[in-house]
Specification:
Elements (H helix, E strand, L loop, with lengths): L7 H6 L1 H28 L7 H17 L3 H15 L1 E7 L4 E5 L8 E7 L2 E10 L3 H43 L15 H51 L4 H28 L6 E4 H11 L7 E4 L4 E4 L1 H18 L3 E9 L2 E8 L29 H11 L3 E6 L5 E7 L8
Helix pairs in contact: 2-5, 3-4, 5-6, 6-7, 7-10, 8-9, 9-10
Length: 422
């Protein structure tokens, strides 16, 4: 699930929100339904009530006695209207209206046939004198239900929001953003607050431990450089003293490998701490320095960019180029060209090699950490992974592809702030 989505979509997807909202809403509707049913059943105007049964009997006998005497009939109808609070409509046996008392009946409560000696004399329609009151009563129930349901939605959100915040924090921690913390404010009381504090303490400990580990790695990597320098001097003394040349060369190779690994660890530490030291430099000059450091011919460099001045971390980019060239030397028969070219708005560093190229299944994995493809030998699979991290730290990315004429092409593109014009 994509989140925090604190709005309507987040509310719909949050199971606790939905359960609280609909459960409270159904409870409210059930309560009002039961109350309405009781009130409606026991209301005096209901045909099921004993009051109206007595009214039927009384009206039937009185109207039957006075029906043929219009004055007496109308006088009784008026007294009934006032005494019982109802409206009456009188109709003869043919259905014609012969009298209205109080008002017309839009909806009669009941119709009373008037009979004498088995002969139908007419009908009396009886309805409530205050019919709007019942509708108002129903509307009041509906309005109260809607208001209470809205309140239940607000309550459900208030109850579920702290847990939603905790879900967001744990998700961010799982994605590596260890600085994320639960900030629930006044919601920190009770069990949710205890849970939030536990998560915050756990995140702080993990963040502190990882920070200490990174700092230790950076310190150790930096301190290793000093004994490595002394070891190089010792190997020179051994050579001058006539020691076995093979042993001296083996020692130099081991020292060079340790030095290379130390350089990678230092570069990794700077990326972890986001400690990029950006400055203006010339990309072509950087490439020539890297070629010289590896003892390669400067003629390998080819420049197809009009302006090679950049602003970035030259040390890290030099490390990335070094890794690309070492990868070609160790696994692909050596580099045949180091190319600087412009690709859209980016500047690309490209290394062509003389190897057999990549297996198509490897092209999407060569930059993964600890991935060791064919011909990797004793490699740990960290060189190209570091290249990608350095490229992304400069707003670019890495790429690998096979060339049609044979061999592979591996490099990185950079989107860095251009150098200021001279």
């Amino acid at each position: 699930m994509p989140l925090a989505e604190p709005g309507f979509r987040g509310f719909v997807r949050a199971r606790m929100h939905r359960r609280l909202f609909f459960t409270m809403g159904l409870a409210i509707l059930g309560t009002f339904g039961a109350a309405f049913l009781v009130l409606y059943t026991l209301h005096p105007e209901s045909p099921k009530g004993p009051h109206l049964e007595r009214l039927r009997d009384f009206f039937s006998s009185e109207f039957a006695d006075s029906w043929t005497d219009p004055a007496r009939r109308d006088a009784f109808a008026e007294r009934a209207r006032l005494g019982f609070g109802v409206h009456l409509e009188l109709h003869d046996a043919k259905g014609s209206e012969i009298g209205v008392f109080g008002g017309r009946c839009d909806e009669s409560e009941f119709t009373l046939p008037v009979q004498r000696d088995g002969k139908l004399l007419g009908e009396v329609w009886v309805c409530s004198a205050h019919p709007p009151q019942r509708k108002t009563f129903v509307l009041a129930f509906v309005a109260a239900g809607v208001v209470l349901w809205l309140i239940s939605g607000f309550a459900a959100r208030r109850i579920g929001r702290p847990l939603w915040e905790l879900v967001q924090v744990t998700r961010e921690l799982g994605e590596g953003r260890l600085s994320s913390r639960a900030r629930l404010g006044r919601h920190l009381a009770g069990e949710v607050g205890v849970l939030a504090n536990s998560i915050n303490e756990m995140a702080s400990r993990i963040e502190r431990q990882l920070s200490d580990q990174k700092e230790l790695l950076a310190s150790v990597s930096h301190e290793i450089r000093t004994p490595l320098t002394r070891l190089r001097l010792l190997t020179e003394f051994l050579r001058d003293s006539g020691a076995n040349e093979k042993f001296v060369r083996d020692a130099e190779l081991e020292i060079a490998e340790i030095d290379d690994l130390t350089g990678r660890l230092l570069a990794t530490s700077r990326l972890e701490f986001e400690a990029l030291e950006t400055r203006e430099f010339d990309a072509a000059e950087l490439c020539r320095n890297v070629l010289t450091r590896l003892g390669l011919d400067a003629a390998l460099l080819e420049v197809r960019a009009t302006d090679t001045r950049l602003v970035g971390d030259a040390t890290l980019l030099g490390r990335a180029l070094l890794n690309l060239l070492l990868n070609a030397a160790n696994h692909a028969g050596g580099a045949t060209r180091l190319l600087i070219e412009t690709r859209g708005e980016r500047l690309a560093f490209v290394v062509d090699d003389a190897g057999p190229g990549f297996d198509p299944a490897e092209l999407t994995r060569v930059f993964d950490s600890f991935y060791r493809g064919r011909g990797s030998g004793g490699s740990l699979g960290l060189g190209l992974s570091l290249v990608r991290r350095i490229a992304r730290a400069h707003g670019g990315d890495s790429f690998a592809e096979n060339r049609a004429e044979g061999g592979a092409r591996v490099g990185l593109t950079l989107r860095v702030r251009p150098a200021a014009p001279v």
